Amino acid sequence: MQLPLSISLLLVPGPLFSQQPTRREARAARVEESPVIDGIVEEEIWSRAEVITGFVQAEPHEGEPATENTEVRILYDDTTLYVGAICFDSDPSGIVVTDSRRDSPLIDTDSFQMIFDTYQDRQNGFVFGTNPAGIEYDGQVSNEGEGGGQTSTRQRAQNVVGSGFNLN
Question: What's the mean per-residue pLDDT of the chain?
Fold first, then answer.
């Protein structure tokens, strides 16, 4: 018997888990076939998932409602979790992309990032992200991200799990 996948979402009013978040829950939709991974979230399979909205800013106005709408949908099958995000922008000419290398810091660029609180302790988890250039960004957050933070390429190689943020 397959149980439905339930994902607790934390709408965090700042970077990582720095302040008391608002807890919401979203249900991922189970699918038998995988969606096409092409950056377009318009095929019928995505309509089976709940639309998640209501995100807040991390910058420049921490905790304020997002200035642009973002819609996220979550699907899963026996082996994979799929996240589809549509990030709307009323003025695409203002989109900022500072780097297109894998695991480049997403600090001074428009980006979409998710933290999976897989330990359900609101302190440790895994972060995944991308920017408009389509980079792959992933890392491990521990101890609420304290002590590490995003660093330069040279410093990144020295980050360890105990430092709060690990891109290795």
Answer: 76
**Contact in structure between 83 and 90 (CB atoms under 8 Å):** no
Specify whether 142 is located in the same domain as 61. no
C-alpha Rg value of the chain to the nearest Å: 16
119 lies in the same domain as 84? no
Last residue of a domain, one of 88, 113, 134: 88
**40 vs 25, more confident:** 40
The DSSP secondary structure of 67-130, one letter per residue, reads SS-EEEEEEE-SS-EEEEEEE--S-GGG------STT---SSS--EEEEE-TTSSSS-EEEEEE
**Distances from the Cα of 82 to the Cα of 85, 107, 119, 120, angstroms:** 10, 24, 19, 20
C-alpha torsion sign, points 31, 70, 55, 109: positive
Name residue, tokens 């919401």: 24
With tokens 């076939």, the residue in question is 33
Same domain, 81 and 60: yes
pTM: 0.70
Domain, as residue range, for 165: 96-168
Same domain, 122 and 42: no
